[in-house]
Design brief:
Mean pLDDT: 77
Strand content: under 5%
Shape: globular
Low-confidence stretches: none
CATH topology of one domain: MetI-like fold
Number of helices: 14
CATH superfamily of one domain: MetI-like
CATH architecture of one domain: Orthogonal Bundle
Number of strands: 0
Structural class: mainly alpha
Helix content: over 70%
Length: about 325
């Protein structure tokens, strides 16, 4: 991989981020309505004695810069973004958008990346074993049943788990990230409580994607089984486990790594619905609440974080692939 290629990939990363946030900015702002009118209407509908005429609404719009032409709002947004300022939430003023994202981001990262890593590792390993000729037929049958989850939408998996383990069996909490009444017993009890609350959301993502990774790994392992280097390893009398891991899995895993980056955005979108279903305090819940109240700065901030995470994952995987497989040399003939 040459330096020129790496720089071009980094430049493409910033281009993707800029195009995405630009499209998102204009789509959000050209939609009918505005956050100021929506917020005042909600307050009046809730019974609050608020006398808000057109003059007051226009004054609030001026304070938030919503009365400026759209192109001026866009350039002001880019300038503020370049300074690392995501602005203030309209519905939670004077709370900054960075504060809302900072409070929710650790929960999303902990849930999404843990579930993603588990599903990728387990799915790749089971897919390799499914194609490996030494795997017993009974084990293959059991592992094949896991691929059925690949055809079920993740939100349906989440609803099924919620109904069985939270409502019927009552083994696990129905939602949130912690017990609202607090957990006595010290730090260890709080960790256990957090894990219990995050188990169902994480399991729904794992089950929804483990079948997908199994299908991909099985296909790649089948293509590896007839290779010369695998037959040579068997002829040398190497242990079965070493042949499977070092010669089979290692050479079939590369497309799985690429797919991990490609499907990162799909997994992020899936985690949003899962967080809403389980009332999990992550970015998904913040985004849905912001869309419902038309809170422009929060929508823009959350989408920016998701775009940077997805495009950043693709960039990292693209730059790391030559280290995983020395046969790859970008930018060389």
């Amino acid at each position: 991989m040459t330096l020129d290629y790496a720089l071009r990939r980094i430049g493409f990363f910033f281009l993707v981020v800029w195009i995405t946030i630009t499209v998102m900015f204009f789509l959000v702002h050209i939609a009918p309505g505005d956050p100021i009118t929506d917020q005042i209407t909600r307050m009046q509908a809730s019974g609050q004695s608020l006398s808000a005429g057109p003059e007051l609404i226009e004054e609030y719009k001026r304070q938030f810069g919503l009365d400026d032409p759209l192109y001026e709002q866009y350039f002001d947004y880019l300038v503020q973004l370049g300074q690392g300022n995501l602005g203030y939430s309209v519905t939670s003023f004077p709370t900054k958008v960075a504060t809302l994202i900072g409070d929710a981001l650790p929960w999303t990262l902990g849930l999404l990346f843990t579930a993603m890593l588990i599903s990728w590792v387990v799915g790749s390993l089971l897919g390799g074993l499914l194609a490996w000729r030494s795997t017993p037929a009974l084990a293959r049958g059991l592992m094949s049943s896991m691929m059925l989850f690949a055809a079920i939408p993740y939100y349906l998996v989440a609803l099924f788990l919620l109904w069985v383990f939270a409502y019927k069996l009552q083994w696990l909490p129905t939602g949130a990230a912690r017990d609202p009444l607090g957990t006595p017993g010290g730090a260890l009890a709080q960790v256990v409580d957090t894990v219990e609350h995050g188990l169902l959301p994480a399991l729904s993502i794992v089950l929804a994607f483990v079948g997908f990774w199994m299908l991909g790994m099985r296909s790649m392992m089948v293509s590896v089984l007839g290779s010369d280097y695998l037959q040579l390893a068997e002829a040398k009398g190497l242990p079965e486990r070493r042949i499977f891991l070092r010669y089979g899995m290692r050479n079939a895993i590369l497309p799985q790594v690429t797919s991990l980056g490609i499907y990162m955005g799909y997994m992020v979108a899936g985690s949003i619905l899962v967080e809403v279903l389980f009332a999990y305090p992550g970015l998904g819940k913040v985004l849905v609440a912001a869309v419902d109240s038309r809170d422009y700065p929060v929508i823009e901030g959350v989408v920016l974080m998701m775009v940077v995470a997805t495009a950043g994952a693709l960039l990292i995987i693209d730059l790391v692939l030559p280290l995983i497989d020395p046969r790859i040399r970008y930018g060389r003939d």
